[in-house]
Amino acid sequence: MELNQAFHNRIAKLCLEHFKALPRRGKPKPSEWTILSCIVMESGGDLSVVALGTGSKCIGKNKLSPKGDILNDSHAEIVCRRSFLRFLYDRLQNADTGCFLKFNALHKKYSIREGTRFHFFTTHMPCGDATIFPKDNVEDVGQIVEREEDYEVPKKLTRTGDVFRTGAKCLLEGDEQDSKAAGSEYHTVGATRTKPGRGDPTLSVSCSDKLSKWCHLGVQGTLLSLLFDKPLYFSTFTIVSKTPFSLEALERALYNRLGMVELEYPYKQHKLIVAQAKYEFEWAKRSDRQPSDCSISWCNVKDKSLEVAVEGKRQGVTKKRLNSVTARLKICKLELFKRFVEVCEQCDVELDKNRDLKTFNYKQVKVLAVHYNHCWDTLRKSFKVWTTKDEKLLHFFLDNKLVL
């Protein structure tokens, strides 16, 4: 698929205008900045924003919930992707002849109709490895240069000047650590990283690591891999202008640092068409601005399409009701788990002949995705290290019971 610059400009304009048209609730104040990410669906030549997320915050490990009722990671890319999952579940439950989805009643699997593609848009380089590149690269913003593939990624940048830095930390369990030396020696490139927290460390890997995972296993995740015949990959990556950007750093973060990863069909190393659009983002990060505390989740559904989150819960909920149903976001693990079970029941998808799906906890259902999990095990070896969370955080049931 060959695309020109005009296509990426069209994607950026569409996303920025869509965000501008949303209600003011949750948007940054003049003194604040945020990051915006969107997923655009292309079907029959038409483009439409189907999912959107904003934010730059992440909760620490001490706030993680064993009930699946809190949003751990509120970075724009992650909120956008979870909003996209909600959009997919909505379409799976309401698929008709004009929908982009096809259902194979014999195999109990969905597929994406031919000619339908998904495009990723963002206003900032993904945190983590993709943000580490020499500052003198900025003058080359938007320049796409053809070069030979090189899977031997140097661990140190050879430039003598300074580099853009990331707040994401190398995993302590890994062999690769930042030297924090002067200039270009400050960071080690290619490392798996976790997002910074406010004193309390997080267990969320960087957006560079998450996007890399999606480029190999698809954006649909574990549960939906049980319902789709193939993984869902983004076709393109578009970023705005007037923000630090390096194609080399992005490609290193998404694929090159992992080498030639061989995954079993239908999974593969899927490469994106990348370009920088001519449009700017009004609420971009600046030294005189503070990060917004809010995250916006929007997707193209009829019921409560827009939600605003603060610290992983719905904005405006009183402290007394933080553990109530009304405090839960539609994109938290528990709510998406509910949608998954509903789709399975509606389409008569039988994942286990001996048990009702409602009797499974979240972890038990994820284990059923044998092929996806096998490929994830293979991919994880290429990352060398990944965060490990307490298994009890995944042992929640639909009725919110816990197995401790």
UniProtKB/TrEMBL annotation:
One of its GO terms (biological process) is tRNA processing. Keywords: Hydrolase, Metal-binding, tRNA processing, Zinc. InterPro entries: A_deamin. The keyword Ligase does not apply. Its cofactor is 1D-myo-inositol hexakisphosphate. Its EC number is 3.5.4.34. Residues 51-384 form the A to I editase domain. It catalyses: adenosine(37) in tRNA(Ala) + H2O + H(+) = inosine(37) in tRNA(Ala) + NH4(+). GO terms for molecular function: metal ion binding; RNA binding; tRNA-specific adenosine-37 deaminase activity. Specifically deaminates adenosine-37 to inosine in tRNA-Ala. Belongs to the ADAT1 family. PANTHER family: TRNA-SPECIFIC ADENOSINE DEAMINASE 1. This is tRNA-specific adenosine deaminase 1. It comes from Exocentrus adspersus.
